[in-house]
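Let us work through a complete example step by step.
Step 1: write down the sequence.
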Amino acid sequence: MSYGSHLIMIDTCRALDAWAAFDVFAVAVTVAWLEFGLFSTFLMHYNNLQQGCSLVGEYLHTECFHMECYLAPGFAVLVLAAVLSYVSPRFILAQCHAALEERLKETNNTDTLASSSDEDSEENMNSPVTGSDARTCVVVAQGPSDWLPGLLQHPLSRVVAKPSQ
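Step 2: predict the structure and record it as tokens.
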């Protein structure tokens, strides 16, 4: 698979990870457990429901309503899974990005070694895509800003060449 395809896959995985909301769900359950009782008490005594709840309490001698959220025994598993779903993709994507950077360095080193070899024939070094000596070209892909605009162009025009120095 090409370097650009790997970059596209990693960026897609990062976008999907950003959309994943399992950790947010675990935090929302925790906040509900901590705050729902206080919130319902505030609504009953100090906000829009004050008049209606005071009438219910006065005539029916009961509380208007009260919300509580209790945690189930599996909540610890939920929290552990949420932490893992937050940490794991970041670690794995960092490892993938480092491996791709290493691959790019190895590719550039191989190109440099090949250009210093005297066994290459001069007639095969002229590139039809760039029109320049292929021994002096290094493919550079820095990130989405470099390759993303090229997706809308013709496949042969997506080659980004930078002369080696």
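Step 3: interpret the result. Residues 117-142, 150-163 have pLDDT under 50 and may be disordered.
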